[in-house]
Amino acid sequence: MDQFQDQSAAAIRQPQAPPVVRKWWHTATVYQIYPRSFCDSNGDGIGDIPGVTSKLDYLKSLGIDVIWLSPIYKSPMDDNGYDISDYRDIAPEFGTLADFDHLVAKARKHGIGIVLDLVVNHTSDEHPWFVESRKGPGNPFRDFYIWRKPAEDGGPPNGLMSSFGGPAWTLDSETGEYYLHMFSRRQPDLNWENPEVRREIYRMMNWWLERDIAGFRMDVIDYIGKQVDQELVKDGPRLHEYLQEMNRETFGSRNILTVGECWSATPGSALLYSGRDRNELSMVFQFEHVTQQWDEVYGKWRPKPFDLVTLKSVLSKWQYALSDDGWNSLFWGNHDLPRAVSRYGDVTGYHAESAKMLATVLHLMKGTPFVYQGEEIGMTNVPFTTIEQYRDIETINMHRLHVEAGLSPEDFIRGANESARDNARTPMQWSAALHGGFTKGVPWIEVNANYATINAEAAMTDESSIWNHYRKLIAFRKTHPVIVYGLYQSWLDQHPDVFVYTRTLDKDRLVVIANFTPREVPLTVPCELAVSGKCLISNYEPIDALPGENIDLKPYEAFAILSQGP
Ligand code: NOJ
Description:
The chain is built from 17 helices and 22 strands. The protein is α/β, with parallel strands linked by helices. The strands form six sheets. An eight-stranded parallel sheet has the order 11-10-9-5-2-1-13-12, covered by helices on one side. A hairpin with a 4-residue loop joins strand 7 (169-172) and strand 8. Helix 12 packs parallel to helix 16 and helix 13 packs antiparallel against helix 14 (409-419). The longest helix has 15 residues, at 195-209. The protein is globular, with a radius of gyration of 24 Å. It starts with 6 loop residues before the first helix and ends with a strand. The model is unreliable at 6-12 (pLDDT under 50). 1-deoxynojirimycin is lined by residues 79, 82, 119, 183, 219-220, 261, 335-336. 1-deoxynojirimycin binds next to loops.
């Protein structure tokens, strides 16, 4: 046995039958759009819905099936739309309901479904429910939110903290009570224990479902069962009851995709959310592969050095856990995370190679891949130098708190360059034109200066681009059932530099090998992986056969060989 093979993974797993019920989203690839930063059609510097519609041909040619639109609802934009003041209207900067309906209809003609972001843990403080609620006890909407009397010393009722820094409670001076907000003080948490709140939300969801949307991405959905007085926020005791009720009352009878954002998800709870007899969600976003890289005390603001063995162990654990039931989402990035190629790849020496390697590893796993806008052209983190260039409320709050606590502003910016959410939110780089072709006006946040070389126009005309690599991977999922349903097995689990796995379905076997380093890496291929077949994809010269002996992998080299038995 090779020194890097993990004992526990050494036993070769037997291919299982594919899931009994096949779903359309098993073969789908989702593309996430952060509307504010995608395409500005009217020159106000802010991306909008007509901008998205104008790029449907681009998305169609990439091959994606679904667009997840980050929130487009009416909002004061304290948290860029994750603070909704009217669930049944569109923010004017993004367009109108007519623009939205047009997008849905036109996308359908392109074979693309629109998944909306469902933000129902909280609303904006400008939502009419909250405006009423804050009028005081006795108001019919008081119990739509979570109000508590001050602690004996007049301070917050308990120690719950907001994800954006500071206490999760704000005192409302009018009534002398505190309201709960797990995010900004302008995002009061809804009281899910109130059946009237749940009824209103289900009504609203059905209203959108009637507009022919293809599903919902559910914002921090693991928070809705919270037990505030026990300081229990995630995975509360009634969470799954609420989700089953929601399923029954809204989308259960429809063939849509639902994905819950669940930072607390474990393989066990993922089966509760997405197990085949559970009637809850299609899948969840789990974040273990993200959070295992964070510092125990300072979290994402002080990432640990990259460790491939840990990353592999987390990803493989999830592949194994949801092998026969439930379903995985697959993603490297989203609007809250740094750019994948900056985090896991090498943007200076091996930009294209490492971006393609990451895509290969992710897209050939079992699950539904999510591509975050710009990832398909290898967009990178942005090297802002001052806090004034950042726009995100989380970063601005954290900057204040950290600097007050004694961190130098330079050190904070260094951390933010690696971890801040604005890394993912700089405008989509369409071309080498001014502002990357994103807007004819002044963009709401600066465009990354590397748009002159990293842009969609250049990528689409280059046969060997990252974009074309994504395109191939996305297409393979449609033509190769082994990618969709094949049994996953990892190999060489303890190898510090190389990720190796196989997928097996009937007589098809896919061997995937990826070097995660900027160095040449000699690899002893386990004899069980010796294969001769067809190179499905590679970021260097295609390789059709693997001898069961030593090979040399080039920097960030990744390839997949498909063998099809007789
Ligand atoms: C998770 C979203 O992804 C994030 O962008 C947002 O700030 C919080 N939830 C609050 O809605």
